[in-house]
Amino acid sequence: MEREELTLKKTITLRSKNQLTIPNDVVEKLNLHQGDAFEVSVENGRVVLIPVVTIEKDQAWFWTKDWQVNEEQAQIDIENGNVKKFSSTDALFSDLDDENDEDD
């Protein structure tokens, strides 16, 4: 997915408790919402805020490289019709048993 380049220059003021308000047009353009998380860094004397998505620990497995590679392959198989449909779980398990018998 290509990132749309956004160039907006605004002047904002650091308030008490080191708070900044992000202008509404920036919030809308980036589809930000209350409670969103940001990575904060300093690069060449500039403060850089990058919106980030946090993933709950019990869901992190889905985003591992290996799992994503397998997800991509599964999508390719689906798109190419390389899938089977079963009328019941018994039929599914029977097919799996048949494949295991062939591998032995």
TrEMBL record:
Q: Which SMART domains match?
A: SpoVT_AbrB
Domain SpoVT-AbrB, first and last residues per copy:
12-57
Its domain of life? Bacteria
Family annotation (Gene3D superfamilies): 2.10.260.10
Q: Where are the transmembrane segments?
A: none
Named from the GO MF annotations, one term is: DNA binding
NCBIfam families linked to this entry? lp_hng_hel_AbrB
| Name of the protein this chain belongs to | AbrB family transcriptional regulator
Which taxonomic lineage does the organism of this UniProt entry have?
Bacteria, Bacillati, Bacillota, Bacilli, Bacillales
